[in-house]
Design a protein that fits this description.
By secondary structure, the chain is α+β, with helices and mostly antiparallel strands. The chain folds into three domains: about 60 residues, Nucleic acid-binding proteins (OB fold (Dihydrolipoamide Acetyltransferase, E2P)); about 70 residues, 5' to 3' exonuclease, C-terminal subdomain (DNA polymerase, domain 1, Orthogonal Bundle), CATH 1.10.150.20; about 60 residues, Orthogonal Bundle (Helicase, Ruva Protein, domain 3). The chain is about 45% helix and about 20% strand. It has a five-stranded mixed barrel.
């Protein structure tokens, strides 16, 4: 069972990537949340992998973060949801937004995802609400004393690790730093940046 791949990007498409690992090309399906974080063809890449085995096929699904993989695997555990639908759900909404929608029982928001109807959305909420994975953010103890540019980099990095696209992360961090100032420290500024993203 393949659980992790590290290699060079041979080909890159919005729904799949071919990873060259020691001369062997692995065709890996990826959600858009992972795709947007990938470098260009020829660059190094490391992906967490879910190997899906069927009688007639063996498919690899790759993820940039633990949260994406956990969400994918929990979606697969829901009756009537296969890998394609699970991938569509992750591609249709940023992972932290998906967690929030499930926790809040926001069926209407989930049905805006292409290929996900009302019944599927209701099943996702019903079966995942109490066991949804949590986004993890590592906060450094000395972040409060960091230089403003270093604090900004740490905050942007944390939001990118949560699954937000870099331009969006940078915009929200800049707005949070402007609202609070650079002396508020990592955790408070991160909370403010998340509030900016929710606006």
């Amino acid at each position: 069972m393949i659980a992790f791949l590290r290699g060079r990007i041979l080909e890159k498409h919005p729904n799949r990537v071919v990873v060259d690992v020691g001369g062997v090309g692995y065709d890996v399906a990826v959600p858009l949340s992972t795709f947007y974080g990938l470098a260009e063809a020829g660059a190094e890449v490391a992906l967490r992998v879910h190997t899906h085995v069927r009688e007639d096929a063996l498919a690899l699904f790759g993820f940039a973060t633990v949260l994406e993989q956990q969400l994918f695997e929990r979606l697969l555990g829901i009756s009537g949801i296969g890998p394609k639908v699970a991938l569509a759900v992750l591609s249709g909404m940023e992972p932290p937004d998906l967690v929030r929608a499930i926790e809040q029982g926001d069926v209407a928001r989930l049905t805006t995802i292409p290929g996900v109807g009302k019944k599927t959305s209701e099943r996702i909420v019903l079966e995942m609400k109490d066991r949804v994975p949590r986004p993890e953010v590592a906060a450094t103890a000395d972040a409060a004393d960091a230089a403003p540019s270093s604090l900004r980099d740490d905050l942007v990095s944390a939001l990118v690790n949560l699954g937000y696209h870099r331009p969006l992360a940078e915009k929200s961090v800049d707005a949070a730093l402007k609202a609070l100032g650079p002396r508020e420290g990592f955790e408070r500024t991160l909370k403010q940046a998340l509030r900016e993203l929710a606006k």
